[in-house]
């Protein structure tokens, strides 16, 4: 998509701030966003392209590793493994797995920003990594020690070229949150506006680039050596990490991500979600000042319902807005989790932290759209072709062979009816075949799946009795009604004959047979727990595998 989608406008009330025609912002903003007058936006298209083009160079592994950073990483992880080997491993089973996961998480914390960010990516790998590892690494999302305030003050003053007191009437020394790349502080400008200030950690850019060199050297040497590494494809994981983190290091790009997603929400009329306004002048590579928004924590269902908020409708609006952004505009928030969402008293969701944003070039966006439409229609070959066009398979892949080898047109296999050995063998065989075809997870596909996993989990909190089959049908009909002609045109289909939803294919994707008429999230949770128990039986008491 182009840098900003400001061409289309929606109707606004005369009393509304004029920038509501441009973006889904709050109704009473502290300032007005005028995109053409934002000095920090000038040349950003060029800078974004240059940043992306530089990723392969960061991943060029020399014959010799960057000894200092690699030695530090190996030492920290080695100490963690030694402690586990002596203390938890002899006890076996869940104690062993939890102990190893906890020690690795602490090692990543000690290693600093790069490894914390890598751990955050691993934390989204439900189904790919052991659940104990995923659960422990989720703590890295919001439990990172903050930088000393003196260092924060120095960086802010250097970026703004002014003393802190010349710009801010107040600036809280204790951060609201501290993450791997930055931390955020509440503040008030001298002009009176309450703001949030995102400050990059000192030296983080330098350390990330050094750590990427160490990771790029080590990753190929892990392929096939341990089961987890074989499944995750370490070089591809490091590439995903590099593509994700390099853009996060320039907060001007994040500020523009905010404007672009706000513009998409306004264009589609999705006013159930709002985006904070970035400040017109206080944005640099390492500093981002934005409007401060307030609301309930995303998992505070009791308070939301007491305020009369329909949590099911809130969830549906979020899902539709996320899909519209990805499928129709090729831009979407790439890091949905509870810490990045606040629910305001009027029922609208405030979306925060746009450092990780998915951006699809036009061919990939159309492939993404085809993937979901073909999935809804039960067209297996269409889905595999779309995955190839997205980069999940090499261009020369024999699609018929993939369909045949993976038995994609065979009868549905219900995992809850399989024994532990059968389930483990099935997963292992599937992994082996996918790796044999050179399958990989492109960055945007990984971000999309990660968000879908979050929304899936949010259903457990916000609407556990929601009928998933009925909700899928509702969302599908919404897209047919609102965007059917455009989708048909872009995919070369007949607008007069929209693709029909194949509910049996949807059931198959959920691993249930056609006898299931209604499937709530509670039902899905019970099924997943059955599968987990099967896998635990297979792993036995011998520690992590």
Biggest sheet features: 6 strands, antiparallel
The number of distinct helices, counting runs of at least 4 residues, comes to 22
Taken as a percent bin, the fraction of beta residues is 5-15%
| Average residue-wise pLDDT | 84
Helix content: 40-55%
Shape: globular
Class of secondary structure makeup = alpha+beta
Distance between the termini: 43 Å
Radius of gyration: 24 Å
Low-confidence stretches: 1-10, 227-231, 541-545
How many strand units? 12
Structure notes:
- This protein is an alpha+beta fold.
- It has a domain at 362-439 and 467-519.
- The protein is built from 22 helices and twelve strands.
- The longest helix has 24 residues, at 468-491.
- The chain is globular and about 70 Å long.
- Residues 1-10, 227-231 and 541-545 have low confidence and may be disordered.
């Amino acid at each position: 998509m182009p840098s900003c989608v400001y061409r289309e406008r929606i109707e606004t009330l005369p009393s509304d701030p004029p920038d509501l025609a441009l973006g889904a912002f709050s109704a009473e903003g502290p300032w007005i966003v005028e995109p053409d007058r934002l000095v920090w936006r000038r040349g950003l298209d060029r800078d974004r392209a240059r940043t992306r083009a530089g990723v392969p160079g960061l991943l060029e592994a020399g014959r010799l590793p960057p000894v200092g950073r690699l030695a530090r990483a190996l030492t920290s992880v080695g100490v963690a493994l030694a402690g586990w080997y002596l203390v938890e491993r002899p006890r076996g089973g869940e104690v062993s797995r939890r102990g190893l996961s906890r020690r690795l998480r602490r090692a990543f914390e000690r290693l600093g920003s790069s490894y914390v960010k890598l751990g955050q990516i691993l934390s989204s790998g439900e189904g790919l990594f052991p659940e104990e590892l995923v659960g422990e690494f989720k703590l890295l999302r919001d439990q990172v020690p903050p930088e000393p305030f003196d260092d924060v003050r120095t960086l802010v003053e250097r970026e703004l070229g002014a003393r802190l007191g010349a710009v801010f009437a107040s600036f809280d020394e204790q951060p609201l949150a501290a993450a791997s790349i930055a931390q955020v502080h509440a503040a008030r400008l001298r002009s009176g506006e309450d703001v949030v200030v995102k400050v990059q950690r000192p030296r983080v850019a330098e350390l990330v680039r050094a750590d990427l060199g160490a990771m790029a050297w080590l990753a190929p040497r892990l392929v096939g050596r341990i089961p987890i590494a074989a499944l995750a494809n370490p070089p591809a994981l490091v590439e995903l990490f590099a593509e994700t983190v390099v853009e996060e290091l320039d907060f001007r790009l994040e500020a523009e991500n905010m404007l672009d997603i706000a513009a998409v929400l306004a264009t589609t009329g999705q006013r159930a979600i709002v985006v904070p306004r970035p400040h017109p002048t206080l944005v640099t590579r390492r500093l981002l000042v934005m409007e401060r928004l307030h609301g309930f924590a995303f998992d505070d269902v009791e308070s939301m319902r007491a305020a009369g908020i329909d949590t099911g409708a809130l969830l549906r609006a979020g899902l539709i807005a996320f899909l519209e952004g990805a499928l129709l505009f090729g831009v979407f928030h790439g890091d949905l989790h509870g810490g990045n969402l606040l629910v305001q008293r009027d029922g609208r969701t405030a979306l925060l932290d746009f450092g990780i944003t998915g951006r699809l070039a036009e061919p990939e966006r159309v492939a993404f759209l085809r993937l979901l439409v073909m999935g809804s229609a039960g067209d297996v070959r269409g889905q595999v072709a779309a995955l190839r066009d997205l980069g999940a398979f090499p261009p020369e892949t024999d699609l018929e062979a993939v369909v045949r080898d993976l038995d994609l047109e065979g009868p549905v296999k219900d995992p809850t009816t399989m024994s532990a050995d059968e389930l483990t063998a099935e997963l292992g065989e599937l992994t082996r075949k996918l790796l044999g075809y050179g399958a990989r997870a492109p960055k945007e596909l990984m971000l999309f799946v990660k968000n879908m996993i979050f929304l899936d989990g949010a259903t457990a909190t916000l609407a556990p009795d929601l009928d998933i089959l009925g909700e899928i049908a509702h969302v599908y009909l919404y897209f047919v009604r609102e965007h059917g002609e455009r989708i048909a045109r872009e995919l070369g289909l007949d607008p007069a004959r929209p693709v029909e939803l194949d509910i049996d294919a949807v059931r198959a994707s959920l691993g249930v047979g056609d006898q299931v008429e209604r499937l709530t999230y509670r039902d899905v949770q019970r099924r997943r727990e059955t599968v987990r128990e099967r896998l635990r039986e297979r792993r036995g008491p011998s520690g992590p595998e």
